Amino acid sequence: MILSKLYLKNFKKYKEFTFEFFDGLTGIIGKNGSGKSTIFDAILFALYGELKNKGSKELIKNVSAELKDELKVKLYFEFDNCEYIVSREFRGKNLIANAKLFKNAELITNGAKEVTKEIIKLTKMNKEAFLSTLFASQKELTKLSGLDKEERKKMIRKLLGLEKIDFVENFLTLSLRDLNRDIKNFSSYLLSIEDVDELNKKLKYNNDNLKILNSQIFAEEKKKEELIKNENKKRDELEIFNKIKEQKKSLEYSIKLEETNLLSFKKNLQKYKEELELLNKQKIEFEKVKNVKILYEELLSKVKEQDILKEKFLKKEALIKERDELRLSYKKQKDDISYLEEQLKQLANIEKEHNSIKENIIIYQKQLQDKKITERELRDKIAGEENLINDTKNKIETIQKLGKNSKCPTCTRDLLDDYDMVLDNLYNLIESNYKKNIEEYNIKLNTLLEEINQKQLILDESNKKEKQLHSKIYLLHEKKKDLSNNLNYLEDIKLRGKNNNDQIDKLSSYIYDEKQHKLLKEKLEVIRKDYEYFLTLQTQLEREKTIINNLQEQEKNIDNSKSNIKNRNIEFESIKYDEIAHKNLQLQIEKMRKQKDDLSDLIHDKKLEDSRIKNEIKNITKQLDENNHKNNILQKKIDDLNDYTKIKITLQDFKTTINSKIAPRISQIASNMYAKITKGKYQLIEVSNDFDFFIYDENRKYPIERFSGGEIDLANLVLRIAISKTLQELSGSSQISFLAFDEVFGSQDENRRLEILEAFNTIKEQYRQIFLISHELEIKEMFERVIEL
After folding, report:
1. N or C: which end of the chain has fewer CB within 10 A?
2. Where is the RecF/RecN/SMC N-terminal domain (predicted)?
3. 667, 752 in Cβ contact below 8 A?
């Protein structure tokens, strides 16, 4: 993999920036907080969608970016003679992730998880392996020789990915312990051989008893079936007796019902005869009052004519009153319309003035918003400078507490003679840079705040004027609606007035006499009672034909009932029924039912015994099956114990083998580089299987701690490069052709820095790109290429 270009937008401190990467040794130089390490954070994020240390998505986005602004990282790189572009971005308020991967300008996959999987497949490294192989810091280099034996061994095994084997080995140890415990527990729960024999004997005994009991149940059920068959025959005979008895009872009830009906028909016949005699008397009364009907109807017609005349008269009076009211309304509407028309003459001028003020308000709001954005940017800059002051003060306090023997808080190298110089540089950085910047920003901010206040006053005054004009316009538009309504209402009054006059003219021809109307109504009330008596008699006489028909019907019903009674008595006498034989048959059936119930109880008891024996057999079988199941589980755990033991032994052999290959390979790579760097002074660096480091001096082996600080630094550097090279060989990712080191110079003198640069120059043929990050500005002339931040 060769890096070509990196594009950042709203990523951490970068608003928008593009980096070009070239072959050879490149220095990335800048002050603390300038964003040097952010470049490789962005590379890691582009490839794997994560930073070195996982954190909130919101912390990745630039603090000055708006919610709607996107966060975007795009990395261009070469791999296996192909050009790739990987792009990742967060969009929207919820920072929704998306990613795309292009190969030779063609999209090959998209989606955050899918792109990460494709990158791992391409590079043959996950995020942790990528970091361990291609990135290293001064702190990590110092740990290689400075940690105690166990911690150093743990660190290197983690870099090489061997801690996964340790994890598996630990898993096997825990599993073996659990299996031994389970085997012991399962063994204690198993039945003894004597217990199993005893259960098998009980099982045979119960099966034999079950066969005998089943044969007895079968015999008793055969007896019961025969008894049920005989009982059914008797019940058929009983059913015949029941039907004959029911038939006689039905006829007896029918005869009594007909006799009751005959009495009812005779009573009805007498009642209708009495009603007919009463009607003959009412005919005489009817003849006396029948002339009342003609007189009543003539008077009623005259009263109705007077009612209609009265209604017309009252309607005409109401219309005259309505005409007077309409004339008053017409005059009032005319006055209101004149007043509203005068008020609306100023509407056009006020609307014109209102629109002008609204346009000015939009301009003032835009100007005020722009100034507030500038204010926020100045406050962010001041806060940033104050944070830098606090960080620098913390570093000063830390260095002062630790004294001259402390390490540089940036590069971790011992300060020693540079102690005072470092403190002076830090104090100077606060006074000359940070505080000066804050003072300039505050001057700009105060000027800007005065401009914002003035603009706000103008805007507030304009808003107040706009609200006043808006209220006036609203009221005038309401009056405009009132004018339209009044004009419509005036037209309605004219139309209603014309209709009113037309109706009064039509009703003028009707004349109403109230006295005559009252006299006619009194005469009508006088003869009303006679008329109502006439109507009652007329209604009664209309029933004469119905009563005569009812008399004839009752006489016919009486004849039919007498005939029915006679015929049913003959039928009743013809039916023969033996009550004694019926009762004897019922007693026989009852005796058979009792015998059947006794047999059912006996069969039930035997079936209960059958169920009890079956349950006992089931329980014994269950115990035996459970014991067999536990035996099988125990055997499986014994087999697992044997398999895990074999795997653990094999894994231990594998660890020994892999250690014996890794340590010599690291030694070989580191020795070749160290010999070149030291110009043959030291020929060999040995790495033991426990990852202890030794340097050979004149063919004698010495621990690394024996040598000077510069020699140890160079040894740590070549050892870390050798570990990276070994990692690439182990993962099969030979196409990765760049390395990056963070703050490897520390506070060394110029000779030490030249030695480190010479070390990197010796491995240029193995890595096309080497990137060195440093906050030491004075070393930038030492590099072939420099990215200065």
Report:
1. C
2. 3-125
3. no
* Mean pLDDT to the nearest integer, 415-433: 76
* Over residues 564-584, mean pLDDT: 83
Tell me what the pLDDT averaged over the chain comes to.
82
Q: How far apart are CA 372 and CA 380, in angstroms?
A: 12
Bridge partners for 702 per DSSP? 695
Amino acid identity, position 109: T
Q: How many angstroms from the chain centroid is the CA of residue 598?
A: 68
In angstroms, the CA 567 to CA 546 distance is 32
* Contact yes or no for 674/716 (Cβ under 8 A): no
Are the C-beta atoms of 427 and 395 separated by less than 8 Å?
A: no
Three-class SS of 146-173: HCCHHHHHHHHHHHHCCHHHHHHHHHHH
Q: Which two tokens stand for residue 758?
A: 């010479």
Separation of first and last alpha carbons in the chain: 25
Give the CA-trace dihedral at 223, 226, 228, 230, to 10 degrees. Answer: -140
Burial class (CB in 10 A: 0-12, 13-18, 19+), 88: buried
Q: For residue 75, what is the enclosing H or E element?
A: strand 71-79
Classify 148 in phi/psi space as left (phi over 0), alpha (psi -120 to 50) or beta. beta
Q: For 3-25, how does the pLDDT look when each residue is reduced to its tens digit (9 = 90+)?
A: 999 999 989 888 899 989 988 88
pLDDT tens track for 71-118:
899 999 998 889 999 999 988 777 788 899 999 999 999 998 999 999
Q: Lowest-confidence range among 203-217, 653-667, 748-762?
A: 748-762
Residues 303-323: what's their mean pLDDT?
A: 83
Tell me if 242 sits within 8 A of 579, measured CB to CB: no
The one-letter code for the residue type at 261 is N
pLDDT of 161 strictly over 60: yes
Q: What are phi and psi of 137, to 5 degrees?
A: -120, 170
- Give the residue with greater pLDDT, 557 vs 128: 557
How many residues are recorded in the chain?
Answer: 789
CB atoms within 10 A of CB 144: 22
Q: What is the 3-state secondary structure (H, E, C) of 625-685?
A: HHHHHHHHHHHHHHHHHHHHHHHHHHHHHHHHHHHHHHHHHHHHHHHHHHHHHCCCCCCEE
Token pair in block for residue 699? 């063919």
Residue owning tokens 């830098």: 388
What confidence tier does 122 reach under pLDDT thresholds 50, 70, 90? confident
Going from N- to C-terminal start, the domains of the chain cover 326-507
**Is-contact 121 115, C-beta < 8 A?**
no
Q: What is the DSSP string of 98-114?
A: EEEEEETTEEEEESHHH
How does DSSP classify residue 690?
T
d(CA 119, CA 353): 65
Give pLDDT, residue 56.
Answer: 53
Phi-psi region of 699 (alpha: psi -120 to 50; beta: other; left: phi over 0): left
Q: Measured between alpha carbons, how far is 278 from 537 in angstroms, rounded to an integer?
A: 11
Give this prediction's pTM. 0.42
pLDDT at site 4: 92
| Under 8 Å between Cβ of 616 and 206 | yes
3-state SS class at 772 = strand
Given pLDDT bands bounded at 50, 70 and 90, which one contains residue 172? Answer: confident
Residue keyed to tokens 């940036």: 410
Q: Residue 107: what pLDDT?
A: 93
CATH topology of domain 326-507: Helix Hairpins (1.10.287)
Q: Cα angle at 280 between 279 and 285, to 5 degrees? A: 85
Which sign does the torsion angle of CA 29, 35, 39, 41 carry?
Answer: positive
Q: Which residues have C-beta within 8 Å of that of residue 359, sequence separation ≥ 6?
A: none
